Amino acid sequence: MLARLWLWLGRLLGKTLLTLLSVGVLGWAVGAAWFAWQQRGPVSAVEQIPDGEAAMTQDVIQTAVRIVDQHRESTRYLRDAHAKAHGCVKAEVRVLPQLSEGLRQGVFSEPGKIWQATLRLSNGNAYPQFDSMRDARGMAIKLLDVPGKQLLGNRQDRQEQDFVMFSHPNFFVSDVAEYRQNVAAQADGKKVMAFFPGWDPRSWQVRHLLIALQTLSAPPDSPTQTTYFSVSPYKFGEANAKFRVMPDPDNCPAYALPKQNQDLPNFLRSALNQQLSTDRVPACFVLQIQRQDAHKFMPIEDTSIEWREQDSPFETVARITLPAQDFDTPALNLQCDNLSFNPWFGIDAHRPIGGINRLRKAVYEAVSDYRHSRNAEQ
């Protein structure tokens, strides 16, 4: 009797598990089919600004300032993101000598041109933490002595072009409305629950949570061994494009980084210092662009969508060299901490486009002004 009961329970459990598995597979298939149906072209090649975006931007500014206040140290106010730098280093950005005509746009219009630049490498978190923690990694490039009218009227004397990137091809929010909701929740201490704003399952952002978890990756061995993406689009002459920077060791002297102690809080700075300062070996990258094909699903206004390489391959426009140098000194680190990077620091040929970039224009400026004014009072 007992044996028959156990067999019956076993069969019931097996059928239940099989049913749940079948429902799960069916749900995944339906979801994948729906998402594929949603992700189809054509898309707009021009910006589409939703109603109420200006008011939402002001809300984000208030939240960003609150984050800066939350994460301040005793002697300084930090950035609201990418607070911890591994170092600011000098770099040379050389436009390809044989660059094709269609890629000769903006700062890449002169083949063979060498730009002097400052490059900041960082962690993504809004508060400095051990480099071993899962996190995004950032790269910001500032080309110097760039002629032409600057996008921001109050910076006409600066003559610069910034490219701001981090180590994942797409962002964990789609637009300004979602960013406002997500960053406000995170400022209140919510992490995972920031992606579940209400009881209605239609408001749940499961795909974006998965993107966020993928973005928080294990640390690389060195900041020079990571690929960085602009995530959001920019003008590239008359076209729209995204940027990518990839390691290019084949165009630098062969180098094997000695094993770093990843238990140390700043081992990524140590790795960068080891290569450039101690061993005096340069590091190399390629700078690439990916042009929008509006007939494919390559939207401007949704930064959660990765532009697929099979729809539009990346094309190399320049090579970046970080020469051997000493960068880790108190004076240079203070200078690095005070340096501002902004995708709106540049010329019209590389104008940032899309909602997240429009948001950046207001938030970066407001947070930078707030941070610098408070630090000046310290």
Structure description:
The protein has a single domain (49-377), classed as Beta Barrel (Catalase HpII,  Chain A, domain 1), CATH 2.40.180. It has seven helices and nine strands, in the order H-H-E-E-E-E-H-H-E-E-E-H-E-E-H-H. Strands 1, 2, 3, 4, 5, 6, 7, 8 and 9 form a nine-stranded antiparallel beta sheet that branches. Strand 6 and strand 7 form a beta hairpin. It is of the alpha+beta class.
Shape: globular
Alpha carbon gap, first and last residue: 81 Å
Briefly, what CATH class?
Answer: Mainly Beta
Number of structural domains: 1
Order of helices and strands: HHEEEEHHEEEHEEHH
Strand content: 15-25%
Number of contiguous helices: 7
Helix content: 25-40%
Mean of all residue-level pLDDT scores: 89
Give the radius of gyration. Answer: 23 Å
CATH topology: Catalase HpII,  Chain A, domain 1
Stretches with pLDDT under 50, minimum 5 residues = none
CATH architecture: Beta Barrel
Largest pleated sheet = 9 strands, antiparallel
Structural class: alpha+beta
Q: Give the strand tally.
A: 9
Say which CATH homologous superfamily is assigned: Catalase core domain
